[in-house]
Amino acid sequence: MYKRLLSAAILSLSALPASADDHACGKVTIADMNWNSASLIANIDQFILEHGYGCDAELVPGDTMPTGTSMIEKGEPDIAPEFWSNSMREGLQRGIDEGRVRYAGSAFVEGGEEGFWIPRYMVEKHPELKTISGIKANADLFPHPEDASKSAFYGCPAGWSCQITSENQFEALDLADSGFEIVDPGSGAGLAGSIAKAYEREEAWFGYYWAPTAVLGKYDMVKVDFETGTDVQHYKDCITANDCMDPKATMYPAADVDTVVTERFATRAPEALTYLKQRGFTNDQMNGLLAWMEDNQADGEYAMTNFLINHEDIWTQWVPSDVAEKVKDAL
């Protein structure tokens, strides 16, 4: 019944007549990136900018590198709602220096989160497992799926950038000396599946994961404290490098996940820009939304409607009351 109501709401949105002040901020193109959180945010931005600020907002396909390059070189699209800036830091800085793009706020107010995790039910039984020293002292609690004489650490899939960082951290933490061996999950789905399988059976699990993700929205995991603090410079200089010769353990620093806009858009639509500066999600909020998307097989548009209908407590904090009323009327 709920799905039918949401579907009806989506259909009714497309039939809404344009109001007199629509298109007041002109045509706005928004990058709809090809992963769930970015697509959800893009759809939210489109709806709020169109119905709350009178923009002629259009979604266009996007991905990190081609979108960033196009914004800098061609001035389009106008908005990249979820941009993992570390992946293109030098190019973005050049665009800023040349007056082509700017940062407009944070998509994730706490930044992207990475770390080594274990299920909460294990911590409840063995509180010492919250720390890496506790993990190493109890390595026998994490049997390897193929060799019970060894302990299992689930690494990042081969070919992903996090494979480099997680393996450097594994070496820096001397986990092999405690009997751990890296298990290659084969794929992102394989890594997620290993957590789901462990949770269903309340079995041991220890490995790398990141947030915000549907997995950390569905399964209560605890991030292991490396007891090292965070050395951001060493992380950038060595832990992220394929040829890091002397890795030293450090907690993962938060990854910058920004909203990037063209300077042209920022200049012509200051009120819309203010909204983008205010709009942002905590990792817990986005984890929950992504879990809902996965459970309901929802795309960005369907999830946007669910969000605007059921989470007014979040999005009404981003906009003035008159804009919030326009958005509610459109719903």
Characterise the protein shown here.
This is ABC transporter substrate-binding protein. Residues 27-308 form the ABC-type glycine betaine transport system substrate-binding domain. It comes from Salinivibrio kushneri. GO terms for molecular function: transmembrane transporter activity. Keywords: Signal. The protein has 331 residues and is of the alpha/beta class. It folds into two domains: 16-110 and 256-330, Periplasmic binding protein-like II (D-Maltodextrin-Binding Protein, domain 2, 3-Layer(aba) Sandwich), CATH 3.40.190.10; 113-239, D-Maltodextrin-Binding Protein, domain 2. Helices cover 47% and strands 17% of the residues. The chain contains 16 helices and ten strands. The strands form four sheets. It has a three-stranded antiparallel sheet with strand order 3-10-4, sandwiched between helices. A three-stranded antiparallel sheet has the order 8-5-9. Helix 1 packs across helix 14. The radius of gyration is 22 Å and the shape is globular. The two termini are 18 Å apart. Mean pLDDT is 92; it is low at 1-23.
